[in-house]
Design a protein that fits this description.
There is one protein chain. The protein is an all-beta fold. The radius of gyration is 25 Å and the shape is rod-shaped. The termini are far apart. It has no helices and 15 strands.
Length: 171
């Protein structure tokens, strides 16, 4: 917006991290300059730069910059431990009580927003328990004596801040 002259042109310059920067000319829609760029898959994953450049009818130029992040990758789930010991084939009795399930879950580009553990307890009444994050280590403590007798399944579902989801199954 320019209160004294007419904004003649606006373009968006993308620094997409590949060395192949590009510009897109905006279209004036009743005083609002709009760019439609829907193919974000052409942008490199990671931090991106965007500069908006406006030029009025007498040659005054204004540049505004902002950064944003492109993330196509699901969170990584690793280091399966049960009560501090690496083991994904543990055996419990009905007297085992609370057991702690621990996973290292991280995302190199954005934050891991939520993690839950889905338990198939052999009764047809599957359930979820939301994990607690302590510095990238996600924990769930659950009383396994409530499980039905037999092999149980556990799925770890990790969701990053842009909606990429990892489902890791342990049986």
């Amino acid at each position: 917006f320019d209160s004294l002259t007419i904004v003649q042109s606006v373009y968006f310059w993308f620094d997409n991290g590949t060395g192949l920067d590009f510009n897109i000319t905006a279209v004036n829609q009743s005083g609002e300059w709009v760019v439609s760029y829907v193919n974000v898959s052409n942008l490199a994953e990671g931090r991106q730069g965007l500069r908006v450049r406006a030029n009025d009818s007498v040659g005054n130029i204004n540049n505004t910059a902002l950064n944003f992040t492109i993330d196509f990758t699901t969170p990584n789930v690793s280091v399966v431990t049960l009560n501090g010991n690496p083991n994904n084939k543990a055996n419990f009795s009905v007297r085992s009580g609370n057991q702690t399930f621990n996973f290292t879950i991280f995302d190199l580009t954005t934050e891991v927003q939520s993690v839950y553990f889905w338990f198939d307890n052999g009764t047809g009444n599957d359930f979820n328990v939301t994990a607690i994050n302590i510095s990238g280590e996600w924990y769930v403590s659950y009383n396994v004596s409530a499980f039905a007798e037999g092999q149980q399944g556990v799925r770890i579902r990790a969701n990053d801040s842009v909606g990429n989801i990892n489902n890791t199954d342990l049986n």
